[in-house]
Amino acid sequence: MLYRGTVRITALIAALTAAVVFIALAALLPRVAAADDYIGAEQCAACHPQEYAWWKNTAHARAGNALGPTEQRDPRCTGCHSTAPGKPHVQCEACHGPGEHYWPAFVMVDVHLARAAGLRSGAERSTCNGCHTADAPGIRPFDFEAALAKMRRHVPPTPSKAPAGAKGAP
Fold first, then answer.
1. Least confident stretch, 10-14, 56-60, 159-163
2. Are 27 and 21 contacting, i.e. CB atoms less than 8 angstroms apart?
3. What is the structure's pLDDT at 45?
């Protein structure tokens, strides 16, 4: 009788261990961001006012205005002309990833932690090529290197309010 109980407990422990390992591994896998994972450019502006002011004067900040009423309801159009449902235009998170998990200050002060939480540099060719394609209607040929150089001229190389001595800071 005691032996059967031990086997059941051992099997239960093994099943629970497997479930915990599965959940931990699943958390590490990339996933599609949910609409509520996006915090919006105004939240980013609280710590990055210079970057936000520069962005407000770019075509990305007005991207949604290029769409007519029918196009505003078409996911083929809003996929590139908005960041996420309820986040019109091409905001910070369209390039840097949904900010829900990396925007808190205690995460942002540690570059490695922020990247682990989903922050992307935004300067990856693959990010731009998601929308700037040869078959995109009404868009002139996209020159990644020229666009990146233009962005770097206008955006400070470090966060505008980076705490002194931030971990992982350049």
1. 159-163
2. no
3. 94
What is the DSSP secondary structure assignment for residue 99, as one 8-state letter? -
pLDDT over threshold 60, residue 28:
no
Tokens of 120: 């992307």
- Measured CA to CA, the distance from residue 165 to residue 106 in angstroms comes to 13
Burial class (CB in 10 A: 0-12, 13-18, 19+), 79: exposed
Spatial separation of the C-alpha atoms in residues 116 and 49, rounded to whole Å = 24
Tens digit of each residue's pLDDT (9 = 90 or more) over 6-20: 777 777 787 777 666
pTM comes to 0.69
CB 41 within 8 A of CB 91: yes
User: Is 96 in a helix, a strand, or coil?
Assistant: helix
One-letter amino acid for residue 40 of the chain: G
DSSP string for residues in 17-85: HHHHHHHHHHHHS--PPPGGG---HHHHHTT-HHHHHHHHTSSGGGGGGGS-TTGGG-HHHHHHHEEET
What number is the average pLDDT over the span 55-71?
A: 92
Average pLDDT over residues 134-163: 72
Question: 């205690």: which residue's tokens?
Answer: 106
More confident residue, 54 or 135: 54
Query: What does the CA dihedral 106, 110, 114, 120 come to, rounded to 10 degrees?
Result: 140
